[in-house]
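During the second year of the project, the team shifted from modelling isolated chains to modelling whole assemblies. The rationale, set out in the original proposal, was that interfaces cannot be judged from single-chain predictions alone. As a representative example for this report, we include one of the complexes processed in the last quarter. Its constituent sequences, exactly as entered into the pipeline, are reproduced here:
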Amino acid sequence: MIDLPRTVDFDGRKVILVDQRKLPEDLVFFECEDVECVAFAIKNMVVRGAPAIGATAAFGLALVASKFEGGRDELLKELRRAAELLRSTRPTAYNLFWAINRVLEGAKGSSPDEIREKIIGEARRIAEEDVENNKMIGELGYRLIRDGYRVMTICNAGSLATVWYGTATAPMYRAYEEGIKFEVVALETRPVLQGARITAFELSRAGIPVKLIVDGAAGYAMSELGVDLVITGADRVLRDGTTYNKIGTYSLSILAKEHGVPFYVAAPTSTFDLNSGPEDVKIEMRDPKEVAFIGGRRIAPEGVDVINPAFDRTPPSNITGIITEKGIVERPLDEGIRGLFSRSRGA
Ligand code: MRU
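Output from the structure prediction step:
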């Protein structure tokens, strides 16, 4: 079964992260003692995956609060500065902004000690809830996986992309626990190779059969091998179900549609951005070197123009359903999402 430490933790003086740049060779930790280090870790993908970076940012603010020596107003000013820095790290994953706002909203109190306690408490709750939500995604989603299924996924929306247990992998871990026999096809996910380096690592470590393919083999897998189900994660879901996720997700959704394969997104409600339209969402453009080099070796001629978007946008018409901790949203997705959020507000 799943044998991984928490991706993100806080011991009161340090933020402790699994260093994902070192996987799969080494499972080692990266420790931050100030918020600049936390911002570096998010930007440079020491930690990655929307829920994991949300929890990391929350602990980054907890770190600022725990180390701060001074008055109430200076603490609040310092927290706002830290929040700005953290917000500037990666623009697409909504959990980052959601977690920072949630911690800041909770930063109320008349003394620095009171504020400190609230902030640390809120950051810890964000991390705990993430694990609980993922478990619930697993509980609700595992019945989609049947004996003999081949399940495809892209990037890593696994335990290492969250505090623990994962979103897209949650139904897989739970189905495996139930004794359901299935295999996973993981797309390698160029350029950062989260599928090869991280998903293949964590699923095989848990004992789940996994086959790794290059991104360009997704069509082959669907037409020649047969794929029964696709489950991906999400960096941001809009109110009509439009989903932003790792580059290649959109192409995969078209392939799934063409081949009649159900295409599910697994995401906690903290990934839902109900107030933005596509015009408001910034797709992160990353360093051209990620494309022009592999493992430190140049694979493209010097000077060639590179476009390196980290995410793409999948329209609701290509998505069969969205597995959240509060229920599976079915089509029409906009109505389902409205229902989900009005139910949870009423509850
Ligand atoms: O660039 P990354 O590795 O942070 O991208 C991660 C993804 O696209 C995941 O699918 C998404 O964040 C969901 S993680 C549960």
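The chain has eleven helices and 16 strands. The mean pLDDT is 97.
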